[in-house]
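Because discrete structure vocabularies remain unfamiliar, we reproduce here a specimen of the format, pairing a chain with its fold in token form:
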Amino acid sequence: MSKPGFTRVASRSVGAEALLLMATPTLTKHTLPGVLGDILIDLRSGGRESPRPAVVVLRGFKGFKDWGMFPPFSERLARAGFTAVTPNVSGSGVDDHGEFVYPERFGHNTFSAELEDLRRVIDALLQGELGVPPPPALGLMGHSRGGRISILQTARDPRVKGLVTWSAISTTDRWPPDARAAWRKAGVLQTKNMRTGQILPLYIGILDEIETRPEALDIQSAAGRITVPWLLAHGAADESVPLPEARVLEVSAGSRARFLPIDGAGHTYGAVHPWKGMTPALDTLFDATIQTLTQTLL
């Protein structure tokens, strides 16, 4: 039996999506002022004259809009009839080529800054300021830490009509008390970017938020307030965010969430950077995501 919000409507069938796949997307780049600097935005759409539903795609910790699977997924979204909006929030620390050239911005990034940047992107999109008409419907898709931001935003923003998360975290407090104490004493926590070998700073702004604003950042509470259809996908072999975290979110969300564990999949579903092509897990993930968003937004 289908869960509430996931009943397929005949006019929104896979056949309808196939017709939309004939559109050829174009890519434009946009810049908005963010909390810590510029927000860099890639926007892909197969039709810029008439309004199309839009999906904002949010990356994970140390991720960026051009990492691995995000450009091909955004291309797929655009070919399926959506406007795909993939931003680098101002605290991502990377330039338009994905290089960590702004480590101080990365270090001062906070959950509040990311939520504010996302609000600015949504506002600009819905006001027709990103080169396409205001979309008739809006969805969010977030991976890992981007999943958390997507959940928090969806719970408080009635403009969001559909949600998809990949490998979303279920709590913002991911450091034990002794690690937090050492972090606060030093004033900075050093973290290594395994892709580049760079050592990046994390200052105590994010720690202050964890300790002083726990209710505002409570992902599980936010999950319980979501009233729109939600595809909650997670790799069963996720090495960074264990599968039980997804189960916690599933319980919190109740009937609005459709839980999709993907057997054998890790945190990035086999995707790497630079992009090396699709994997069976990504095929499953992309198909389920497009199907959900088609049912919900088109």
About this structure: The radius of gyration is 18 Å.
